[in-house]
Amino acid sequence: TPTSGCRSSSSSCQNYTSFAYKGYRCRCSAGYQGNPYVVDGCQDIDECAHWELHSCYGTCINMPGAFRCQCPDETYGNPFMKGGCIKNKSLSIGLVASGGSILVLLAFGAPFVTRKIKQQKAKKRKDKFFKQNHGLLFQQLVSQRADMGERMIITLAELEKATNNFDKTREVGGGGHGIVYKGILDLQVVAIKKSKIIVQREIDDFINEVAILSQINHRNVVKLIGCCLEAEVPLLVYEFISNGTLEHHLHVEGSVSLSWNDRLRIALEISTALAYLHSAASIPVYHRDIKSANILLDESLTAKVSDFGASKFIPIDQTGVTTAVQGTIGYLDPMYYYTGRLTDKSDVFSFGVLLVELLTRKRPLAYDSVDGDSLVLHFASLVTGSVLADLLDPQVMEEEDGEVQEVAALAAKCVRLNGEDRPAMREVEMTLENLRIKRKQAARDAKSRRYDDDGQFSIDDTAT
């Protein structure tokens, strides 16, 4: 009744009279169990989950407050009896009568059906990976830039064809985090970066790199051609830079390395790229992992800054952000390491280490001074003294024309402990540019003095 205490909609009220009591009782309706005195207190019993409640030998289907027992498809009979469901004979007769036709259809149709099923499964996997790899986010990031989204999204099939199914003979580089393949895509030689490890941070780094490089266009920054997000791990496609890394040229090539003139020009090109990222890009970008292994050189030894997986967009109205520390020990800004505060001066420190590496041809982590100091600390302590020459690469000392002391002083400023005492990248760029201009002028002056007795002069232009 409306005034009874039976609150569950799946309950009933029953009058109850005994010797000592007259009133009512609430009960859950048939097929329900629980507490009828509370709202929704009576819940449906799943009879199909309990054999003793249904005894169905056919197909048991649970329903609100009840269940249905029926014979499976293509059978008929009594589903409550063991063996009570019998195969439909009329269907069998029909199948036998048309058996020849069906066999013909199966012979020709089975491969098509199998292929279709495989294609559908492959599409589902690709869709799953596309979402997992933040494909929708990537589309949103590039949607503001005309048709960039369509142009940059490359299919897995295209990359498999470009690399002969990622054949080992196409591997041209890599490390702990991934492998780089050389391939041909749309008649263009490309580098395809494939991560080894399926970790969310790796995926996030890849997408971060895509987001940053899709908005950068600079001759000294490696060009991103596109990406593939429908594989288990995302793949990035870059212009192919044919001449390896700066690290390789400095430390693996042999006794003779890059000329001093090339080193000075490469330093200027890297500083130009970083100055652009810090102050000329639409949104400031801090690289966070500047090192010789991340500087690629093309066939003319032009520098290309690469590997933006750790990079950060910086809001225009901010000078830094607090973030989890990323980078490479030996190049890492100590103030950033201790405080987690990332600023443009963090890249300046790393660039300073790179300058020291160019001057000395020594690895930052593979060097220990007599006093146990690192390469950077030992270098900084010698800059103002006459013994700095003992630490420099002999090839540099032989080829330089008065610029080394100024470059060394600039490197020492860049690696100062306090970030506020370091110069900005634009200032570093201008200093190196002035040194290059002076070196070119000195080379021209030297040429003009190289006349022989016949009024001829020899051309030995090493300062291009």
TrEMBL record:
<dbReference type="InterPro" id="IPR017441">
    <property type="entry name" value="Protein_kinase_ATP_BS"/>
</dbReference>
<dbReference type="InterPro" id="IPR001245">
    <property type="entry name" value="Ser-Thr/Tyr_kinase_cat_dom"/>
</dbReference>
<feature type="region of interest" description="Disordered">
    <location>
        <begin position="441"/>
        <end position="464"/>
    </location>
</feature>
<dbReference type="InterPro" id="IPR000742">
    <property type="entry name" value="EGF"/>
</dbReference>
<dbReference type="GO" id="GO:0005886">
    <property type="term" value="C:plasma membrane"/>
</dbReference>
<dbReference type="InterPro" id="IPR018097">
    <property type="entry name" value="EGF_Ca-bd_CS"/>
</dbReference>
<dbReference type="InterPro" id="IPR049883">
    <property type="entry name" value="NOTCH1_EGF-like"/>
</dbReference>
<dbReference type="Pfam" id="PF07645">
    <property type="entry name" value="EGF_CA"/>
</dbReference>
<dbReference type="InterPro" id="IPR045274">
    <property type="entry name" value="WAK-like"/>
</dbReference>
<keyword id="KW-0472">Membrane</keyword>
<dbReference type="GO" id="GO:0005524">
    <property type="term" value="F:ATP binding"/>
</dbReference>
<dbReference type="GO" id="GO:0004674">
    <property type="term" value="F:protein serine/threonine kinase activity"/>
</dbReference>
<keyword id="KW-0812">Transmembrane</keyword>
<dbReference type="InterPro" id="IPR009030">
    <property type="entry name" value="Growth_fac_rcpt_cys_sf"/>
</dbReference>
<dbReference type="GO" id="GO:0007166">
    <property type="term" value="P:cell surface receptor signaling pathway"/>
</dbReference>
<keyword id="KW-0418">Kinase</keyword>
<dbReference type="GO" id="GO:0005509">
    <property type="term" value="F:calcium ion binding"/>
</dbReference>
<dbReference type="Pfam" id="PF07714">
    <property type="entry name" value="PK_Tyr_Ser-Thr"/>
</dbReference>
<keyword id="KW-1133">Transmembrane helix</keyword>
<dbReference type="InterPro" id="IPR000719">
    <property type="entry name" value="Prot_kinase_dom"/>
</dbReference>
<keyword id="KW-0067">ATP-binding</keyword>
<feature type="compositionally biased region" description="Basic and acidic residues">
    <location>
        <begin position="442"/>
        <end position="453"/>
    </location>
</feature>
<keyword id="KW-0808">Transferase</keyword>
<comment type="similarity">
    <text>Belongs to the protein kinase superfamily.</text>
</comment>
<feature type="binding site">
    <location>
        <position position="194"/>
    </location>
    <ligand>
        <name>ATP</name>
    </ligand>
</feature>
<keyword id="KW-1015">Disulfide bond</keyword>
<feature type="transmembrane region" description="Helical">
    <location>
        <begin position="91"/>
        <end position="113"/>
    </location>
</feature>
<keyword id="KW-0677">Repeat</keyword>
<dbReference type="InterPro" id="IPR000152">
    <property type="entry name" value="EGF-type_Asp/Asn_hydroxyl_site"/>
</dbReference>
<dbReference type="InterPro" id="IPR001881">
    <property type="entry name" value="EGF-like_Ca-bd_dom"/>
</dbReference>
<dbReference type="InterPro" id="IPR011009">
    <property type="entry name" value="Kinase-like_dom_sf"/>
</dbReference>
<protein>
    <recommendedName>
        <fullName>Protein kinase domain-containing protein</fullName>
    </recommendedName>
</protein>
<keyword id="KW-0732">Signal</keyword>
<keyword id="KW-0547">Nucleotide-binding</keyword>
<keyword id="KW-0245">EGF-like domain</keyword>
<dbReference type="InterPro" id="IPR008271">
    <property type="entry name" value="Ser/Thr_kinase_AS"/>
</dbReference>
<keyword id="KW-0723">Serine/threonine-protein kinase</keyword>
<feature type="domain" description="Protein kinase">
    <location>
        <begin position="166"/>
        <end position="437"/>
    </location>
</feature>
